[in-house]
From TrEMBL:
InterPro entries: NAD(P)-bd_dom_sf (IPR036291), SDR_fam (IPR002347). Signal peptide: none annotated. The keyword ATP-binding does not apply. One of its GO terms (molecular function) is oxidoreductase activity. This is Dehydrogenase/reductase (SDR family) member 13a, tandem duplicate 2. It comes from Pygocentrus nattereri.
Length: 318
């Protein structure tokens, strides 16, 4: 009997501890005006991106879902319109695993849309494989595609009175490594031989997202554009869709008990989009609706600068 009570107590304590740390919830309180403003959200058809699109559309923004699958995007748009009453949500084709697609997206966007106020680099994946241009898929989609997209849209963002760029990272960036030699040799960060399948490559790409934002903020000094990287929390989405069955057996029960729902998972992104007065924090990493400290490797000036220059070359910008 005593053991049973003790067991229940310990489980309860661990649960409370987890809910207060790794799975902590937060709430965006920002009130920045969104009507008349245009937002691009990459991968806005599901998960955190869709929840973000829902809120921004509800606040009157013109929302462009930059997605690779038209059918999925259109079904998300009809959900968003039904819930928010907005009629200003549109689909534009973007496949981040193709630099050609990124270029054609920006060409069409810049011709069709007179303004851009907020770019949310949300799309991301954990998967195995290569992009159209031969890069490791996580480096290519999570970092390089968004790098090129952002660079090609910067001039339009600078015309906005207060443009912002938000890039989804993850706490997984802590386990990331940037190996420039491997990048040159393999078109991927790392050796390609990972103990935990493609998880290491995911962490590497998420470290790129933090370093990209760090360097971008410097390059944006003196403009009205600011930028932020985000850990959304651990959120129940389709992100684990390519994870193997035996890993899912472990993830699913925890997910059911503890993972945040996508609306809660969108709060830190929304904070970076809507909170007034965070401009002095440009370049920083946010989670739980607040700027957080990162380790030295995630704010290394020299590595961030080199990653930027290498990315310019790899994406064909120079
Ligand atoms: N869920 C978490 O716990 C968690 C934690 C930390 C960080 N994050 C980050 O949060 C972001 C959103 O993830 P999520 O959890 O909402 O995952 P999700 O439900 O899997 O959504 C990912 C989105 O990215 C899109 N996408 C993937 N590859 C693409 C490509 N090549 N071109 C264009 N779009 C592409 C997907 O489109 P399709 O539907 O067509 O595949 C989907 O819309 C990601 O950057 C992820 O790394 C998530
Ligand atoms: C940048 O911000 C300043 C101060 O808010 C404002 O006066 C100026 O018009 C803005 N620039 C643009 C391009 O909107």
């Amino acid at each position: 009997m005593f053991q049973l009570v003790l067991g229940v107590l310990v489980i309860g304590l661990v649960y409370v501890l987890l809910v207060e740390t790794l799975f902590k919830k937060s709430q965006c309180k920002g009130k920045r005006e969104m009507s008349g403003r245009t937002v691009i959200i990459t991968g806005g058809n599901t998960g955190i991106g869709k929840a973000t699109a829902m809120e921004l559309a509800g606040r009157g923004a013109r929302v462009i879902l930059a997605c690779r699958n038209q059918q999925k995007a259109e079904s998300a748009i009809s959900d968003i319109m039904k819930v928010t009453g907005s009629t200003d949500v549109v689909y534009m084709q973007l496949d981040l695993s193709s630099l050609r697609s990124v270029r054609s997206f920006t060409e069409i966007f810049l011709k069709a849309e007179p303004r851009l106020d907020l770019l949310i680099n949300n799309a991301g994946l954990i998967a195995d494989g290569r992009t159209e241009d031969g890069f490791g898929i996580e480096f290519g989609v999570n970092h390089l595609g968004h790098f090129l997209l952002t660079c090609l849209l910067l001039d339009r963002l600078k015309e906005s009175p207060e443009g912002r760029v938000i890039t989804m990272s993850s706490m997984a960036h802590r386990w990331g490594k940037i190996d420039f030699d491997a990048l040159v040799a393999n078109k991927d960060l790392g050796t390609g031989r990972y103990s935990w399948q493609f998880f290491q490559a995911y962490c590497n790409s998420k470290l790129c997202n933090v370093l990209f934002t760090h360097e971008l903020a410097k390059r944006l000094k003196g403009t009205n554009v600011t930028c932020y990287s985000v850990h959304p929390g651990i959120v129940k989405t389709e992100l684990s869709r390519h994870v193997s069955l035996w890993q899912k057996v472990f993830i699913e029960p925890v997910a059911w008990l503890l993972f945040l729902d996508p609306t809660t998972g969108a709060q830190t992104t929304l904070h970076c989009a809507l909170q007034e007065g965070i401009e002095p924090l440009s370049g920083r990493y946010f989670s739980c609706c607040a700027a957080q400290d990162v380790s030295a490797k995630a704010k290394d000036d020299a590595v961030a600068k080199k990653l930027w220059e290498v990315s310019e070359r790899l994406s064909g910008l120079c």
